[in-house]
Every structure is written in structure tokens, then in C-alpha cells.
Amino acid sequence: MRDDFTQKTRLTLQHRVGCSCSNPDCRRKTTGPNSDISKASSIGVACHITAASPNGPRYDQDLSKEERKSILNGIWLCEICSKMIDVDVNKYPVELLYRWKHQAEAIAKYEYEGKEIPPELLSEGFYCPYCETFVKEGVMFCKGCHSDICYGLTPSEKSESAKSWGCIGLMVGFGLFVVVPVMIKSLLGWSVSDYWGIGIYAFVITMASSFALMLIMPEKEHKERLKLPPRFFKNLSY
What are the residue boundaries of the structural domains of the chain, listed by start? Predict the structure, then answer.
């Protein structure tokens, strides 16, 4: 048995977002005139955030029957976005849908009251620490004070990272192929060939490993830094 919304709940979900799709990347109106002058058309759907029945998308067995068909478990979407969130539940988890719901209702409230909508409600972004201008995510400079925005590592930081990892590779190679054989011979008295018996190839291996570290590790650090908010720099200071 499905725990479906009542007609009243469906209408309330629709009107709380101003009859617009709650997906911030869509926001299309879901109602409009029909060619029949006595009718209106609708492409909106009252969707369950957690499924109305077992085996459905994002089903939560811990919810009661009343909680499952409550308005708190609903989100208003257009037919396309409704289908989209249910065929890829990993991309559209419960937490994201709740964020869409609250954002859409907040936007509708500003529109209903005739007020200017704060930019952070319309798109993902950041505030410039120098002039407090809102900057959309992906923009490379602040329109307010023309500060440059860096996502991830700066070019100089990448360069320094490459140098550091190159030095680490050289030190490890030197220790492994030069220092370790000498220590084994002097401390344990074992017969160990210099450079572990591979001679000039020890240097080739060391150089190749160091070069690989210089290429791989700065990119890894860059990707990790991309997970954090961007940094703002004045006058190309980076």
C-alpha cells in the first residue's frame, strides 16, 4: 500500500513554492493556460522525498504511515525533475531534496512579498571578504572589487608542491639505495651490494619516482583543495 498525499497536501505543496518547480536549476512554472479557455494545464507533481511504499526511491522504513504522507515528506517538482530524482537516487539524496524544498519556499516568500531575492538563494556562490559582493560559483573575479578568485591551489602553490615532492622522492631514493645498504653492512655485517646491486639503475628509478611524485601529488592536493571554498586575492597577488 502506498502512503499517498491527500489532495489538500498536494495543493499546499504547489502553492508554497508559487507553482514553480523546486529544483533550483529548473524553477519552471508548473501551471498555465490550456487551449480550452475553461481549463488550466499543470505539469507539476507532488513528490515523496522518501518513497510512499517499500522498494521505492529513498524509502525510509523508520517513518510512520502518517509521517510518510505528511507535507514534511513532500516536494513540488515538474514532471521531468520528478522522474529525474527517482531514477538516480545517489545523485539526489534526501538531504539535497530537503535543501531544494526549503530554498524554493524561501524564494517564493520573497516573490510573494514583492521583495528582492537574496542572490545566495538563486545560485550557489560565495561572498567576497573584501567588499561583501556575492559571487556565483565558478566566476573567476569579483565584480565588486575586482579581486581574483582561486579555486584549489594557485600556480605558485602547485609549483612549490612539485618541488617539495621532488625533494622527498630524491631523499627517499638516496636513503633506500645508498644509506640503507651501508647501514646493513656496518650494523649487521651482511654482504650487501652498493645500490642494492642495481648500480646506475638506482639513480634512474629515483629520478623517475621523483618526477612521478612531482606530477601526481600536486594534482591530488589541488583536487583536495577544490573541496574547500575558493580564496579571494587582490591584484593578482597569487
Answer: 7-123, 155-233
